[in-house]
Amino acid sequence: xxxLAGFFDSDTVFSGEKRSPERTVELYExxxxxxxxxxxxxxxxxxECGENTVICAKPGQIxxxxxxxxxxxxxxxxxxxxxxSYLDALPDVMQxxxxxxxxxxxxxxxxxxxxxSRADELLLMGQVLxxxxxxxxxxxxxxxxxxxxxxxxxxxxxxxxxxxFNKSPSLAEIAEHVKLSPIYFHNKFMNTTGITPHNYLLxxxxxxxxxxxxxxxxxxxxxxxxxxxxxxxxxNYTFKKLxxxxxxxxxxKMTEQYYI
Length: 260
Hints:
Elements: E1 2-9, H1 10-13, E2 23-24, E3 28-33, E4 38-42, E5 45-49, E6 53-57, E7 62-65, E8 70-77, H2 81-89, E9 93-95, H3 100-113, H4 118-139, H5 145-164, H6 171-177, H7 182-193, H8 197-215, H9 220-226, H10 232-243, H11 247-256
Antiparallel strand pairs: 1-8, 2-7, 3-6, 3-8, 4-5, 4-7, 6-9
């Protein structure tokens, strides 16, 4: 799965124009309007979108927008049949009671995408799966009951990891939380996300460690403990393997960039 995320402001691209050019959508496009209201056309049908609107355009559709238009977007390219089935089943435009949760999630992804590390790329993938699952629930659709159940399982597992990564839950504990056997859950998680539960957990822990190293003055041993590592030596080994630098050298390098 390939992901693009960012912020779009029509004034920087179509200054003075009243309408964007008609174009054919190439990737799955999920968008949340940032401010005001705008009219868009998808396959000849007009929609009025506001701050509580999520746009879900699919490959092959024809679309354009009346300007100005500001949004946060996620573009997705995937060959995964299950993920495609959920994206294809989403309405082109969804009016929600409140899109604030999605707007926050989209913004976090856009900020993370600006300069993604290897860990960020994996976390972006996890966030996209959670968003697709939540949009599917909001749309109240179920293209296949078996797929819907699995989507809920992966979403539940990702949420559990997010809430408990500092405790370094085992594969068995995560599998028990979603009521599957460890081997069955491991295979399904791998098939859906492209990575193992263990690697996803490690990358989430290292991302939090990077934040603590840059935003606090905590010693490395404390950062390791807060992120769920059993020892500082294992933390140092894992951090260097995923980031390319030991924790303190990473902190020094990132701090020195401020003066460049």
